[in-house]
Amino acid sequence: MIQEAWIFGLIGGLMIGSAAALYLLVNGRIMGASGILGGLIDGSARSNATERVAFIAGLIVVPGVLAMAMGGAQTNISANPVVIIAAGLLVGIGTRLANGCTSGHGVCGISRLSRRGIVATMIYLLAGGLMMFLFRHILGVI
Amino acid sequence: MFRMLFAALAGGLFGAGLLVSGMVDTTRVQGWLDVFGAWDPTLAFVLGGAIAPMAVAWRIAARRHTAMLGDTIPGPNTAPLDGNLIIGSTLFGMGWGLAGLCPGPAMASLTFGGWGGILFFAAMVAGMYVAPPIRQKIDHLTANA
Hints:
Chain A has about 140 residues and is an all-alpha fold. Chain A has 6 helices and no strands. Chain B is mainly alpha-helical.
């Protein structure tokens, strides 16, 4: 399974990129998960709220149905509520300050050679790597 | 109507891709970030696979200028590398490393991620809710620096 993981990674990646291409070329929007959700949460997106809700509905329902058809899926998320809450807050605040996450900066930004997208991606990968080093190998918490 | 239909289609395809690629599996994401341990290179294929069709889409977009449903295609964000981009990306990376979920997979896994996934989503939404005044504060501080 591990040996085949890269094939699933590549196929899934192509699906993610095709979704972003569809959203850009048909709807004229950048597919950034944190921006689409965040605009609804902080009220900065009034005119296109229904489009965002439709995107999020598809994003929640389709993998849900697929997972059920596959006989379930696992996220293997930490069982520690403190870790989960801290991580969720950091992701929520961080992506809204940075104006993008893995999809907006990573996929949509890098593919158009955006300087902000490339720098943001380098920073969050580095920060994530350092957190893994600190919390897994030094502190042994995650 | 078409706008909503295609938004739902894009969201669904995105979600399916996140599930197939393993982006909703926190062990795989944390394995990718664990460069000093048992490093898992799968996410490089995910990112590469996602960037390729999108790079083609940007090429097409540059010639068309308008999307199929009539909207102007957004131009490049020419804002400088400001404090919010750097601080925000750092905080996001820290949270991503801690739990192994970023915003897309957090939503895509809501139906099967159990209470931990729901708790993460709720905390993420709370973070998004409190972010705007923090953003203004950082803008203000870095503008005066």
